């Protein structure tokens, strides 16, 4: 008999992501229209621009060999400098106004690595993290593996409800506040809801963090993965712009959504005291993210090819967003009680069904949707277990990133057909205007 294999506590706390099953379904069933996986539009991937960038880098004998060599753990210095300057420019300020330089920037293997490294650097089992409800479910897996406690704050069309956050902070006793380490916010076109944290709530959030950082500093983990995918509405200043001494905010962005996931490049801008701990941990992970990808990205940014691509990409996704919203309006009558949030950017639409409709993995709607040939993400996946609230089971996330415009229309039609099968709502073609 073979001896059993011992697994660490962290390994045993780490479970498969719930989205894995849905990705498998999409791959194995070519007739299934997936509105589930948060993938990008394949037709818009910038293959020609990347080929030109690779040729330009590799034809330079010095630059080409440098790009093919090991890089540094922190990342390519000219790229870090450019990213910090672009971040400040987007907020209409100079990097010096935030006491930022290239030294405060770390290039990572996507923004997911930032989320993991920051959690690894800051969190011990039993520590407390506050997230939105709902929020990015992939990060939930990281938090569970860390063995932390989580509290959830309701979100609406204006993002995290900071008045509810203030009430939560007041309820925490001194012992709990001493274990509070992070507040996690996806503040632009949130995954999963598509909502954006409003300007008053940005200001209020930062005021709360300062107020409650008395015995130790509470950090905000600002996940800005979708900021560049804005289709209308104002470009609000980052939470980092409200952190003039570079003390309270860890900002992360990724190039997976606005450029190409295959690059696997993201970055973090961090308070100075956090940089070295993160770099030591990252050194244990990989000694640095792909040096070649960083050189290609630097060329795309400095040549203007990246900005031209993002502008075209906004047009692609703006049309897709409008298509899925129009299809929802067409196929779901207003009197059926189905509502959704209109996103100003990003890749997601958050749909709320009547409370008696179970959208979960064991619910009738998902089974009917699969039979109809369409897939969505159950909204329950986007909530962490919280001591105070029952997880809602009547919501769903729809992604319009990967499906074609025709597939989006057909996918919503199939979803509506499945919905009508499991409810008494009459199937209509056109709904009342909303």
Characterize the structure shown:
The chain is α/β, with parallel strands linked by helices and 434 residues long. The protein has two domains: 9-45 and 308-422, Aspartate Aminotransferase, domain 1 (Alpha-Beta Complex), CATH 3.90.1150.10; 71-303, Type I PLP-dependent aspartate aminotransferase-like (Major domain) (Aspartate Aminotransferase, domain 2). The protein is built from 15 helices and 14 strands. It has helices at 9-13, 19-28, 47-59, 61-67, 77-90, 110-122, 137-146, 162-171, 174-179, 199-212, 272-285, 291-303, 305-331, 364-372, 405-422; strands spanning 33-34, 105-108, 128-133, 149-156, 159-160, 180-186, 219-223, 249-254, 266-269, 339-340, 348-352, 374-375, 377-378, 395-399. It has an eight-stranded mixed β-sheet with strand order 2-9-8-7-6-3-4-5, with helices on both faces. A four-stranded antiparallel β-sheet has the order 10-11-14-13, with helices on one face. The protein has a two-stranded parallel sheet with strand order 1-12. Helix 7 (137-146) links the parallel strand 3 and strand 4. Helix 3 (47-59) packs across helix 12. The radius of gyration is 22 Å and the shape is globular. The relative contact order is 0.16. Residues 428-434 have low confidence and may be disordered.
What is this entry, summarized?
With 434 residues, the chain is an alpha/beta fold. Helix content is 42%, strand content 14%. It has 15 helices and 14 strands.
Features of the shown structure:
single chain; 434 residues; alpha/beta; Aspartate Aminotransferase, domain 1; Aspartate Aminotransferase, domain 2; 2 domains; eight-stranded mixed beta sheet; four-stranded antiparallel beta sheet; 14 strands; 14% strand; globular; disordered C terminus
